[in-house]
Automatic annotation (TrEMBL):
Keywords: Membrane, Transmembrane, Transmembrane helix. It comes from the Bacteria. Signal peptide: none annotated. The chain crosses the membrane at residues 40-61, 73-94, 115-140, 146-175, 187-205, 246-265, 312-333, 353-377, 398-420, 426-448, 476-501, 507-528. It comes from Atopostipes suicloacalis DSM 15692. This is ABC-2 type transport system permease protein.
Length: 538
């Protein structure tokens, strides 16, 4: 194998697998000269998240006494790595690509496969640093020799990485043998992501926390048997069991490696005996010109066809359900009873309910929502539609209300599910939905206008649309401020509003919030009518 060949292939694979980091700004687009730097920064961000989640725990918890915390923390990061690995391996090996065509190029099978595996490792190695860190800290806390726990940490990290990468690879290869999977790759991708997201959610909130250490205000979690062996090898009296379990990891990794060498790789790069499956070409179906009697029905079907991008669907599901599910997780799984009947005993709370609905809209609607990308989804049809004998303004308004109603409907289903679970009274729920509906309309209209302003009809990956306007760093900061600081401020205001203020003051503030919301809605509607809709011909 030639190192220069592998290096060149790795650069191409990194560009392919990290195209989601592209920016509409030409100066910031990924190129070979900066791909390694951008990939490094991506791994730094992952490590930063790891430090935020587990930094204080690593140095303040005696891990030797908490095998559940040790194993669940490793399990949590490995599960996230599976999400990344699934997308990476799928993109590099199975995403409508006939890998046998690479054999016509001056590269060997070993070089091709090595470059792609190297790309997977380079892109996702940060996820596997956490086992090494935990094992090193555990070794220090148990007064184990440095010459023992450092090699053991490296060995454990390699074992976990090899087993995880090859396990995901073999699973994807088995799925790809299934004709139904090849035909419905997008649906299966979404289902697998939802399944893995549910597993992450269970790891965060569903773990058993019954074992309490005496004298400490910390409770241990349920032990994950997959990773407990890496803990036991440092504990007196359990070292033999630990080594046996690590031996099982070595056996499974070897079995996976043998499966890859004997079956997966030869099949992956072999010429197909059957006629090669034609790569699906994404063509925008021309809209029927017979629009006289059924144009809106045709447009409706067209809009639904546009929204079949897997990344967009995942973004919609995440943005609509991560707040009701993740943020409310402690309530769902907590042992404390939930009683909202107190809401009936306090007067003039409708302003607080409206404010909660407004806040939820800010959390669940963003520039990557349907309304924020749907004009750009027209691509070349954008100009074709303007040539049709129809009102282009009417078409754009239809498109906007389609996006708004769909966005609103999905969000309301999630919020109603939370309200039913909490047994919230009807009036508060209704007022929350009123505030949410009004602000969702305004935000959807704002992001719809933004999509037109930053119109991109030549995008190849949905992620290119997600990164228009501002840099990724600024976007992350905005999201953190909106979700974290905003939610804390709103809950602080509501506590002050409900338990501190007198009835008269509460009434005046509620009236002010109501009038302000109505004025904002009318004002922005008029602004859009004058500054935006008037640009288009009837």
């Amino acid at each position: 194998m030639c190192f220069d060949h592998i290096k060149a292939l790795v650069e191409v694979d990194l560009l392919q697998s990290n195209r989601q980091m592209s920016n509409s700004n030409q100066a910031n687009k990924l190129k070979k000269k900066n791909i390694y730097w951008r990939t490094f920064l991506q791994n730094v961000v992952i490590l930063f998240v790891f430090v935020i989640l587990y930094g204080s725990m690593i140095f303040n918890i005696p891990l030797a006494n908490f095998p559940g915390v040790f194993t669940q923390a490793i399990s949590f990061m490995v599960t996230f790595s599976i999400l990344q690995l699934f997308q990476l391996i799928f993109t590099l090996f199975y995403d409508d690509t006939d890998l046998s065509t690479y054999l016509a190029m001056p590269f060997s099978i070993g070089e091709l496969f090595t470059s792609k595996i190297a790309t997977v490792i380079i892109t996702s190695f940060a996820y596997f640093v956490s086992p090494f860190i935990f094992i090193v800290v555990l070794g220090q806390q148990t007064d184990t020799s440095l010459w023992f726990f450092i090699p053991i940490g490296l060995l454990s990290t390699v074992l976990i990485m090899v087993a995880t990468v090859l396990g995901v690879f073999i699973l994807l290869d088995l799925l790809n043998q299934w004709a139904f999977f090849r035909k419905h790759k997008k649906i299966f991708t979404i289902l697998l992501y939802i399944l893995l997201f549910g597993f992450v959610f269970y790891n965060v909130y569903g773990g058993s926390m019954d074992n309490t250490e005496s004298g400490l205000n910390i409770v241990d979690e349920k032990i994950n048997p997959l990773f407990v062996g890496f803990h036991q090898i440092f504990i007196s009296g359990e070292k033999l069991n630990g080594w046996l379990k690590i031996g099982l990891w070595i056996f499974v990794s070897g079995l996976f490696l043998l499966t890859m060498l004997k079956w997966v790789i030869p099949h992956l790069y072999s010429e197909n005996e059957e006629a090669p499956q034609k790569r699906k070409k994404k063509k925008e179906k021309a809209i029927s010109t017979h629009l006289a009697t059924s144009k809106w029905k045709v447009f409706l079907k067209y809009q639904f066809r546009q929204l079949q991008d897997t990344t967009l669907i995942l973004q919609i599901l995440f943005s609509k359900f991560y707040f009701p599910v993740i943020m409310m997780g402690p309530i769902f799984f907590g042992d404390l009873p939930i009683d909202l009947t107190i809401l009936k005993q306090i007067s003039y709370l409708w302003g607080a309910y409206l404010l909660i609905g407004i806040s939820l809209a800010f959390v669940m609607i963003s520039e990557t929502s349907i309304s924020g990308v749907i004009i750009s989804f027209d691509k070349e049809n954008y100009y074709y539609i303007q040539s049709l004998p129809i009102s282009f303004r009417g078409y754009l308004k239809f498109k906007f209300y389609f996006a708004f109603i769909l966005e609103w409907g999905i969000s309301v289903l999630a919020l109603l599910g939370v309200a039913l679970y909490l047994k919230a009274p009807f009036i508060p729920t209704f007022l929350v939905l009123i505030g949410f509906t009004v602000m969702t309309y305004l935000l959807s209209l704002y992001y719809y206008m933004r999509d037109y302003k930053l119109l991109n009809l030549s995008w190849n990956n949905f992620n290119e649309l997600m990164r228009r306007g501002v840099s990724q760093v600024v976007r992350i900061l905005i999201q953190l401020v909106t979700v974290v600081v905003g939610i804390l401020a709103i809950f602080g205001f509501i506590f002050w509003f409900v338990f501190v203020l007198e009835d008269t003051t509460r009434l005046l503030i509620s009236v002010g919030i109501t009038i302000g919301l109505i004025a904002l809605a009318i004002g922005f509607y008029k602004y859009a009518d004058i500054k935006f809709w008037s640009k288009f011909n009837e």
